[in-house]
Amino acid sequence: MENPGEQPLISLRNAVKTFGPVVALADGSIDLHAGEIHALAGENGAGKSTLVKVLAGLHHRDSGDFEIEGQPVSFATVADSRAAGISVIYQEPTLFPDLTVAENIFIGRQPRGRFGMIDHRLMRDHASAIFEELGVPIDPDRLAEGLSIADQQIIEIAKAISLEARVLVMDEPTAALSGHEVDRLFAVARSLRDKGAALMFISHRMEEIFSLCDRVTVMRDGRYVTTRMIPDTTPSQIVRDMVGRDIDQLFPKFDAQVGAPVLEVEGLNRAGVFRNISFCVRAGEIVALSGLVGAGRSEVARAVMGIDPIDSGTVTLLGKRLKPGQPMAAIRGGMGFVPEDRRKQGLVMELSVLRNTALTLRDGLARFGIINARKEAEVAAEWGRKLQVKSSSPYNSVATLSGGNQQKVVLAKWLATKPKLLIVDEPTRGIDVGTKAEVHRLLSQLAVDGVAILMISSELPEVLGMADRVLVMCEGAITAEFPRAEATPERIIEAATDHAKAAAS
Ligand SMILES: Nc1ncnc2c1ncn2[C@@H]1O[C@H](COP(=O)(O)OP(=O)(O)OP(=O)(O)O)[C@@H](O)[C@H]1O
Ligand SMILES: [Mg+2]
């Protein structure tokens, strides 16, 4: 952004949005200029996604001013905001799986040729031209089904370009991407900025905000706090703006007594997915399973838990062999599992926060098949407090929580079972910095209490900060193991990327 004095492309002032008694947005204010990438930062539940939905015409603001190039606007529908040049990319893209890539880009406005027939060639050529411009090789004729999240997002961006969007809003686009996918997305974002678009970017990762963005606006409790130029500020300054205090320790790691093996995995195989996986996790130990997205880490975790099938190998929990394919038996044996895809695997969206938290405890809370409702509420309240779950009432459905708070409910639900072995898959994805430190402190404390923890994480600082031992996976095999003292970013990255070399050394 060369000249902050010029008229903003978009200006939102004092926007208010309530849902019944809940004030999701008390003072939503932001200016977006052409040619800038503007970060929106704030804790879970600060109102970022609500502000985005107001810009997108998905939510109607109760009050406040909204102008585009100085002209007041009001959007009744998403189509109105599109027509005004605003495109939004949500964390979970919404493509139609049975349509081709090109059809998804042009859906609802397919170019028509003679006799009103859809002109597939023209559509495909348009799509190819956009992908070429973006420098990403995606086949416009393939079905959307099976595309990676990263590719789906690029397709949403291609759609925005084809709509000649002047404003592109990305709500946590990087949460599920691997390192090189993030690089690719950033390259596309920068080139759009350089062509004069205004971009808004939401992320909980400070390093992303600082490498990509020109300015940052911070929100707290639904209110505008401040806007700063990135070159003139620091991550800790932004964190202070977000939470109103300093965060002293992001990775609190306590000394835990490492005891007897809790989980022993021997020679686990599943054709085409992973091979010859053997490792052990002891009481009081945090073992990290590191590697790139797609290396097979989540698949191993799901197999250990008995959710996915295996071809051969054994899983032993506290000295007892687990039967494959029986996750309920694993849970009864003391295993807890916080999955990666929490929306699909972790929560029942239409049930309340309270019910979701207590879901895994139903056997324990029931007598003669009747749930002790008071107990259920107590347990939910206790864990809600520990994890600072922000909801107006525990009786509200989890669907109304912000993304990060939904993730906290999944964590709460498993911590409440008091597991002996806890498997956490990307435990702090989408969780704000303050709560991140809180989750890390909880994991550390669990280890001190003798729980064995297997932590899958793509974030190297988290792996290095929390793990007693690091296992690295690459292409379905464990390629290296480092004790805490020997784990360095270089060693882990090498083992995660260069399988052949790592195997030979
Ligand atoms: N449809 C709704 N009904 C009731 N409350 C809602 C609804 N949508 C959002 N809220 C509440 O508004 C607040 C702001 O939510 P929002 O999703 O905007 O937060 P966010 O800043 O995007 O957080 P995160 O970083 O976790 O994604 C939260 O307390 C949330 O529970
Ligand atoms: Mg959000």
From TrEMBL:
PROSITE patterns named among the record's database cross-references: ABC_TRANSPORTER_1, ABC_TRANSPORTER_2
GO cellular component term of the entry, any: plasma membrane
Superkingdom of the organism of origin: Bacteria
InterPro entries (alphabetical): AAA+_ATPase, ABC_carbohydrate_import_ATPase, ABC_transporter-like_ATP-bd, ABC_transporter-like_CS, P-loop_NTPase
Membrane topology: Peripheral membrane protein
CDD domains: ABC_Carb_Monos_I (cd03216), ABC_Carb_Monos_II (cd03215)
Listed Gene3D superfamilies: P-loop containing nucleotide triphosphate hydrolases (3.40.50.300)
Protein name as annotated: Sugar ABC transporter ATP-binding protein
Natural source organism: Tessaracoccus antarcticus
